[in-house]
Design a protein that fits this description.
single chain, about 375 residues, alpha/beta, Rossmann fold, 2 domains, 7-stranded parallel β-sheet, 7 strands, binds nicotinamide-adenine-dinucleotide, oxidoreductase activity, acting on NAD(P)H, oxygen as acceptor, NAD(P)-bd_dom_sf, NADP, SDR_fam
């Protein structure tokens, strides 16, 4: 029998048969026999452990790899800098999956008549989520710093729609717009351009963002500022611009922010403290703005994906092949997500199907 169980039984047996209320004031027997040590152990000395600590808190030597806690720590030798544009393969819209409306579904999921903006929509998760909105009936403006790829992707979405809906008499309007979301001037310029082309905006999905890996001590300050600039400022600036437009129109709307599981957990083994903090900021920004804009009928939610296989994560895995094994070993369902796994979530949160859902973080992992 385990020692803890044994001690619990001893404590149970020693407990007098008194009413529960009286018991609460009594010191448990276990604390009377076990000294409480609060001083941290010194690195240059072996910690002195009593029998109980040794039996219950330590693994056997070698049991958890080279050193204890190995699989729960970050590894500072892993460094991944966000690649140059030319180093990333372009994304393609999803083909032949769920494009045509052949199955009955709730009308509330339809995005007919809506105009959605997707930042970072040129590729990756943004592109597939934009496709979900188009497939559900919306016109969409792709906003991205990569102008050429955004234009190719906009055309790709129209082509996919036509291929999936050969008899459709209405083809959605999908446009591409340059924007550096971390710049207020650029955000306002692109918003004006979208309004000129589409006339209005009802929905926003903020997917522009990126991650890099450096240990915190070595993280170059300018890169950290850029990371926060795109992930946090970019999300904030675009959301405020769209909310202002909605309030001026006195129209309801929905904003879906793309956070990350990294906003609520610490990923291992790659070190990425600034990214984790940035995504925690996005998560709480969603809650804060949801409360602030509820009076105007503007809903704000956050999707926090786990590891999804996009061009960006593929590049990271190509550079660090061991990572995939470690990542999947930590995912309860045992596999990374596909970008299209987010299509339903973003459609739900953007459409009237979620009209009473706001201030919510939706984890996808
Ligand atoms: N891929 C994953 O596993 C994963 C997991 C959780 C969260 N996320 C988040 O999802 C979002 C999309 O990630 P992805 O994997 O699709 O990345 P991605 O690199 O494939 O796509 C990101 C897009 O954002 C654009 N972009 C970057 N900086 C920009 C800027 N300053 N202004 C405008 N556009 C800019 C890029 O050009 C690119 O088209 C990011 O916010 C990311 O942090 C990704």
């Amino acid at each position: 029998m385990f020692k803890t169980q044994l001690l619990r039984r001893v404590a149970g047996a020693a407990r007098p048969q008194a009413p529960r209320v009286a018991l609460r004031t009594r010191q448990p027997l276990i604390s009377a026999i076990r000294p409480f040590a609060s001083s941290p152990y010194r690195r240059d000395k072996e910690p002195v452990l009593d029998d109980m600590d040794a039996a219950t808190t330590m693994g056997s030597p070698g049991e958890s790899g080279d050193h204890e806690g190995q699989y729960a720590r970050t590894e500072k030798s892993i460094r991944v800098e966000y690649p140059e544009e030319d180093d990333l393969p372009p994304s393609q819209p999803v083909q032949g999956r769920g494009g045509a409306h052949l199955l009955r579904t709730l009308a509330a999921f339809s995005m007919e008549g809506r105009v959605g903006v997707v930042t970072g929509g040129a590729r990756g998760l943004g592109l597939v989520m934009a496709q979900a909105l188009v497939t559900s009936g919306a016109d969409v403006a792709l906003v991205d710093m990569n102008r050429d790829e955004a234009q190719r992707s906009a055309q790709g979405l129209i082509d996919s729609f036509k291929a999936d809906n050969p008899g459709s008499d209405k083809v959605p309007k999908v446009t591409a717009h340059f924007c550096d979301v971390s710049s207020p001037t650029s955000v306002n310029q692109s918003l004006a351009e979208i309004l000129k082309t589409h006339g209005k905006i009802d929905n926003l999905v903020t997917s522009a963002g990126f991650t890099e890996n450096y240990d915190a001590i070595s993280y170059p300050y300018d890169r950290m500022q850029k990371l926060w600039g795109v992930n946090v400022d970019g999300t904030y600036l675009y959301s405020v611009a769209v909310a202002k437009h909605l309030m001026e129109r006195e129209a309801p709307g929905s904003i879906v922010m793309i956070g990350s599981m990294s906003g609520s957990i610490v990923n291992v083994p790659q070190p990425q403290a600034p990214y984790n903090a940035a995504k925690a900021a996005v998560r709480h920004l969603a809650s804060s703005l949801a409360v602030e804009w509820a009076h105007a009928g503007i809903r704000v939610n956050c999707i926090s994906p786990g590891y999804m296989l996009t061009a960006l994560t593929k590049k990271i895995l190509d550079d660090n092949p061991e990572l995939q094994k470690q990542w999947t070993s930590l995912i309860p369902v045992g596999k990374m997500g596909r970008p299209e796994d987010l299509m339903g979530a973003v459609t739900f949160l953007s459409s009237d199907a979620s009209s009473y859902v706001t201030v919510c973080e939706h984890s996808a992992w």
